[in-house]
């Protein structure tokens, strides 16, 4: 071995020692799912050969950095306000087990959690690890409605939304004719998230539209009745035409009636005059 080879040995040994002593934190399960109201266990372990004096271990909500629970070696643990009374360590953080159990899960517990171990005498390696907690909640019955005017040629948006649901629900639309027969959605329809836009509506658009809100826990649905009407302006125009026609018929009827009455009166006057004339001749 040359001089250069001997020089590399100390560096190699140093690198091995650093690797061995560097802390590693691991969350073996990257996603945990549990129903609302139930419990969830988040596993986390760490490895180090350094002295653990002054160590701190705990969990935070990653997105908000809100504290969940923090362990101080040789002291008491502290708890975040939202988790106080609902969280506890499953093992001994001083013995490399930082797993926790969260009880009475709520929708607000959804999110990414970070496990972190700080050892003052071991600043190398990876001191954090993350995992996701998904609180399972069936979708609530969606709220449905129509946005826009249901008149010929207009565009309308059919609204559908579940206030709750975890994982986030998928939304599906189906359509039925006024005779309650299943049919395809209109070719001009456009999906926009949970909503359905119907463009250039006509009489063929009328019918029933069913929205289903669904996730792995359950599903709910609501329905909307679409009744396409003639445009408002045309309704006024048609009403005016019909009203004018009725008025014309009434006027014509009055004129005809007056004419008939006049003819009858003239005829009666003529008959009376004729009878008077005949009486005079007989005398």
Automatic annotation (TrEMBL):
PROSITE patterns: IG_LIKE (PS50835)
Organism taxonomic ancestry: Eukaryota, Metazoa, Chordata, Craniata, Vertebrata
SUPFAM superfamilies given in the database record: Immunoglobulin (SSF48726)
Annotated GO CC locations: plasma membrane
Membrane topology reported for the UniProt record: Single-pass type I membrane protein
Keyword entries, A-Z: Disulfide bond, Immunoglobulin domain, Membrane, Signal, Transmembrane, Transmembrane helix
Keyword Magnesium: no
Main location: membrane
Subcellular location: Membrane
Domain Ig-like intervals: 10-117, 139-225
Keyword Transmembrane helix tagged: yes
The protein's name: LOC733259 protein
Gene name tied to this protein: LOC733259
Transmembrane segments: 235-260
């Amino acid at each position: 071995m040359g001089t250069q080879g001997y020089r590399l040995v100390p560096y190699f040994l140093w690198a091995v020692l650093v690797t061995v002593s560097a802390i590693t934190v691991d969350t073996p399960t990257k996603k945990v799912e549990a129903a609302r109201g139930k419990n969830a266990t988040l596993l986390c372990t760490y490895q180090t050969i350094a002295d653990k004096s002054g160590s701190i271990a705990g969990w935070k909500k990653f997105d908000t950095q809100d504290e969940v629970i923090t362990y101080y070696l040789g002291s008491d643990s502290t708890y975040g306000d939202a988790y106080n009374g609902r969280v506890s360590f499953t093992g001994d953080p001083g013995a490399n087990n930082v797993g926790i159990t969260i009880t009475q899960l709520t929708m607000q517990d959804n999110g990414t959690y970070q496990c972190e171990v700080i050892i003052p005498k071991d600043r190398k390696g990876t001191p954090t690890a993350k995992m996701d907690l998904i609180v399972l909640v069936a979708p609530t019955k969606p709220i449905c409605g129509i946005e826009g005017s249901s008149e010929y040629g207009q565009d309308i948006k059919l609204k559908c939304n579940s206030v709750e649901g975890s994982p986030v629900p998928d939304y599906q639309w189906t359509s039925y004719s006024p005779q309650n027969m299943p049919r395809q959605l209109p070719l001009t329809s456009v999906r926009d998230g949970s909503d359905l836009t119907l463009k250039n509506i006509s009489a063929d658009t009328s019918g029933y539209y069913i929205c289903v809100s669904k996730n792995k826990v359950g599903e709910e649905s609501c329905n909307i009745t679409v009744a396409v009407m003639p445009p408002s302006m045309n309704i006024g125009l048609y009403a005016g035409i019909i009203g004018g026609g009725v008025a014309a018929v009434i006027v014509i009827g009055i004129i005809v009636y007056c004419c008939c009455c006049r003819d009858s009166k003239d005829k009666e006057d003529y008959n009376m005059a004729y009878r008077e004339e005949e009486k005079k001749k007989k005398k």
